[in-house]
Amino acid sequence: MFRLLCLTACLAGTAAAESPKIQALIFSGRNNHEWRLTTAHLRNLLSATGRFEVRVDEAPAGCTATTLAGFDLLVLDYNGPRWGPGCEQAVETFVRGGKGLVVIHAASYAFGGLEILGEGHVRTGQREPAWAEYARMVGGSWVEGPAKTGHGRRHLFQVRTVDQDHPIMQGLPAGSDQNDELYHRLAMRPEAHVLAVAFDATEIEGTGKDEPILWTVEYGRGRVFHTTLGHDVEAMSSPGFGATLGRGAEWAATGRVETPPPPERKISVLLVTGGHDYESSFYTLFQNQPDLRWDHGLDRASAEAFGRDMAGKYDVLVLYDLAQNITEEEKRNLMAFVASGGGIVALHHTLGSFQGWEGYQELIGGKYFLKAEGDHPASTFQHDVWINVQVADPEHPVTRGITPFRIYDEVYNKFWVSPKAKVLLTTHHPNSGRAIAWISPQEKARVVYIQLGHSGQAYSHPSFQQLLRQAIRWAARR
Known about the structure:
Layout: H1 2-17, E1 22-27, H2 35-48, E2 52-57, H3 65-68, E3 73-76, H4 85-96, E4 100-104, H5 132-138, E5 140-141, E6 150-151, E7 155-161, E8 175-180, E9 183-184, E10 187-188, E11 193-200, E12 209-219, E13 222-227, H6 233-236, H7 239-254, E14 267-274, E15 292-297, E16 316-321, H8 328-339, E17 343-347, H9 358-364, E18 366-367, E19 380-391, E20 405-413, E21 416-417, E22 422-427, E23 435-439, E24 446-450, H10 456-459, H11 462-475
Parallel strand pairs: 1-2, 1-3, 3-4, 4-13, 14-15, 14-16, 16-17, 17-24
Antiparallel strand pairs: 5-10, 6-9, 7-8, 7-11, 11-12, 12-13, 18-21, 19-20, 19-22, 22-23, 23-24
């Protein structure tokens, strides 16, 4: 009898622990984007979480309350003509009554009285009256003015969380990279609660300010999760999109998120050395770091380093070498790595690499002159001196939390720093240049140079260790 009671209790506990799958319905069938591909991908993403059972309706205009009766969640991968009063009323009632709605990318354009777009962004010349209640449900919509909604060129940008305490965002990284369209000047409703934003840079035809990317809306007793991301399958394949979609959909359907956040992927680092002596204790800076996975390239001009395509394999290059020989193919590999979103942390003597390649100096934002060039004298150095370091920008992620410190290291002087570089650390040492750490002036690159790091006494300094860790994470867009 005791065994029977235990078995019954255990089975009941297991059943309670395994929540029933959320029944989700995707409305699709018309979009100015490649809906046949994106809808299938959305279905796969949701199904892969194990929390959803997903169906697709490619002709939503015929929907009724009966159509929606068996579902907990409606996902909109749709941008086309209106659905008619009956279907639209059924959707309003569905959400207002306590169910969930997820709005994907171009669905924010739909039903706003704008010109209806055909597949491939073909202009149809057709317009319909706006569905006013839809704008209230979705929280943010495209408009024609006075500030016209749109987007700049597709590019890689960082999505930054502004409400880490919301159930959707809890446990997720504070920032994630997205190669996508960045919508700007959306007409936002006061009911919208913004979860994440991205800076819309003017150089890609943006507004020069933060734009909302993810938000929620409480609509009656129901919940809405809206993401402006998801232009195509490539954009939907980013880790950030997948994580927020699954958690946003679960929250919209149930009001809570039971799915644990995905473990943060380790930062993949290629450490490049060679051409200059250094102490073996340098490697201790990278050992036993739980968030790093690193390989070692012995010289950037060898096949171990830049002689291969690094884009997609590494997040960050840590350059601690002094090299002069580099082939055109290796140059292309380096620049392709940076263009793909890869980051660089350049340390100490690497400032003297590639004396004849101006592109490298522009990328790093500085140059140590091994010999005089024209009117510029040769740079100088001094070993084993005490350096008082000041923090020029205490708010930057690389230097945040670091206070002025004193370190036994090597100083450089008479080197060149780009006037467009963002200086992070300075010193007043009489035999040193003033700037000793800076951010590259290359606007689309994540490149930081740190002059410190000559020997084991520098490696072991807590402030240098913190500086390097934070530089790697910033370069990796973490």
